[in-house]
Amino acid sequence: MALVPDPELLILDEPTTGMDVSARRAFWSAIRADAEQGRTVVFATHYLEEAETYADRVVVVREGLVVADGTPAELGALTSGRTVAVTLERADVTALEALPGVTSVEVSGSRVHVVTTDSDAVARHLLTHTAARDLEVAGRSLEDAFVALTTDTTSA
Asked: What is the 3-state secondary structure (H, E, C) of 100-153?
């Protein structure tokens, strides 16, 4: 009903909450088509992966103040480093944390995520000194930037 008068601006608050995967995909396809026709679409969401995928511009608000404004890639770049992810059984977390440039290591089952400022060196080490497989290197995400921009570091 909101689209019947063909508004130039559409404001949506958590538009995909409660949708199943197929409905969510169809919804975003329709919204993208509307935006390509010239309609401005503003949406608020806690699903940062959706914002990273579908938004051309992201504004991060903390305590009522804008703390960042830019493309998802620009905001992701605000968080330094890259993530190297591999499948590795029985990872030696202590050894990985000791590698130059490593800022954190997270293990979930056999999947290991290493955040580092030197992804080339970490990837090289994993591939030549361990039984790692399925290596992926990625820039930091919009979610990483959001956490960095909105976390209160003074009370930690």
From this structure: CCEEEEEEECCEEEEEECCHHHHHHHHHHHCCCEEEEEEECCHHHHHHHHHCCC
- 133 and 86 belong to one structural domain: yes
Q: Is residue 144 part of a domain?
A: no
Q: Is residue 31 part of a domain?
A: yes
CATH code assigned at 31: 3.40.50.300
Give first-to-last CA distance, the chain, whole Å.
47
**Structural contact between residues 40 and 11, judged by C-beta atoms closer than 8 angstroms:** no
pTM score above 0.90: no
What is the greatest pairwise CA distance in the chain? 63
Number of domains in the chain: 2
- How sure is the predictor about 44, in pLDDT bands with cuts at 50, 70 and 90? very high
Question: What is the C-alpha to C-alpha distance for residues 77 and 64, in angstroms, rounded to an integer?
Answer: 23
**58 exposed, middle or buried (CB, 10 Å; 0-12, 13-18, 19+)?**
buried
pLDDT band with cut points at 50, 70 and 90 for residue 156:
very low
Our measurement of the distance from residue 21's CA atom to the centroid of its chain's CA atoms, rounded to an integer in Å, reads 19
The whole-number average pLDDT for the span 99-111 is 94
pLDDT at 2: 76
